[in-house]
Design goal:
This protein is 63% helix and 6% strand. By secondary structure, it is mainly alpha-helical. A two-stranded antiparallel sheet has the order 1-2.
């Protein structure tokens, strides 16, 4: 994941409602899977391990957010378990196929949650976070982000 992607995810997380958070976690998982595939192509074992560890973290967050009393949570739990097993297979066998299988499972889920994310009228998950305004500046094609309330609590309640 590039530093620009990290900044983008950080900004989106601070403003996301619960459904958008799931979409963001799926996107982060797919970024880490992509990083794992790139590490396999370069035969960079340490990078592969780091990508797999981070992808497992995303899956762990997705699993922990499930309320198993309602459908389709049990089915999603099974899919996430499958993805964790495929991550282990990719790491131990150093093969791309298990990572591609994860993409085939996660991309339709991300798309489905993306379609319903706009229907969720809940507010942002993070309370008291900074409001970010983005717009073009006077510079040539440059984008700047301005944050309001820079000194007030920095997203934390004290």
């Amino acid at each position: 994941m590039t530093s620009v992607e990290k900044q983008d995810f950080t900004l989106r997380i601070s403003q996301a409602n619960p459904t958008q958070m799931v979409v963001i976690l799926y996107e982060m998982l797919l970024c880490y899977v992509r990083d794992g595939k790139a590490a396999l192509e370069r035969e960079a074992e340490s990078e592969l391990k780091a990508a797999v560890r981070r992808a497992r973290g995303c899956l762990g967050e997705l699993m922990n957010s499930l309320n198993l009393q309602y459908e389709p949570a049990p089915a999603l739990l099974g899919l996430y378990g499958f993805c964790i097993r495929r991550l282990a297979a990719a790491e131990s066998g150093k093969k791309v196929l298990p990572l591609e299988e994860i993409e085939r499972v996660i991309i339709p889920l991300k798309d489905a949650y993306g379609q319903i994310a706009g229907q969720n009228s809940a507010g942002p998950v993070m309370g008291n976070s900074q409001t970010v305004y983005a717009g073009l500046t006077y510079g040539r094609n440059s984008l700047t982000e301005n944050m309001t309330d820079q000194g007030a609590n920095r997203g934390m309640y004290v």
